[in-house]
Amino acid sequence: MTENPTVAATFDGAPLLGVPGRSVGAALVAAGITSWRTTRRGARPRGLFCGIGVCQDCLLTVDGVPNQRACLVPLAAGMVLESGDGHA
Ligand code: FES
């Protein structure tokens, strides 16, 4: 079996390894991180839900740009990912 190549990014300052080209959301879930923002009402945890860019539950900040959909953004080396409330 061939190992997938990995790239290093950071999530809230901690190292995050993942397969280049797969989604940021996939890398987070593979690392055991299932929520990275909370809802405005009730502060309920959110992460991947639809996985296809529709629900916007997976919003996070990518390289300083807020409100990016983790399920659609491909993971790349050196990426700086930050959790947050997902609201600009
Ligand atoms: S999980 Fe629904 S938009 Fe990303």
How do the strands and helices of this protein lay out in sequence?
Blueprint: E1 7-11, E2 14-18, H1 24-30, E3 37-38, E4 45-46, E5 59-62, E6 65-69, E7 80-82
Parallel strand pairs: 1-7
Antiparallel strand pairs: 1-2, 3-4, 5-6, 5-7
Short overview:
The chain is mainly beta and 88 residues long. Helix content is 8%, strand content 30%. It has one helix and seven strands.
Largest sheet: 5 strands, mixed
How big a fraction of the residues is strand? 25-35%
Poorly predicted regions are: none
| Structural class by helix and strand composition | mainly beta
Overall morphology: globular
Across the major sheet, the strand order is 2-1-7-5-6
SSE string, helices as H and strands as E: EEHEEEEE
**What does the radius of gyration come to?**
12 Å
Separation of termini? 43 Å
Average predicted confidence as pLDDT: 92
What do you see in this structure?
This protein has one helix at residues 24-30, and strands at 7-11, 14-18, 37-38, 45-46, 59-62, 65-69, 80-82. It is mainly beta and 88 residues long. The strands form 2 sheets. Strands 2-1-7-5-6 form a 5-stranded mixed beta sheet, with helices on one face. The protein has a two-stranded antiparallel ribbon with strand order 3-4. A hairpin with a 2-residue loop joins strand 5 (59-62) and strand 6. The longest helix has 7 residues, at 24-30. The relative contact order is 0.27. The model has no long low-confidence stretch (mean pLDDT 92). The structure holds FE2/S2 (inorganic) cluster (FES). FE2/S2 (inorganic) cluster (FES) binds next to loops. FE2/S2 (inorganic) cluster binds next to loops.
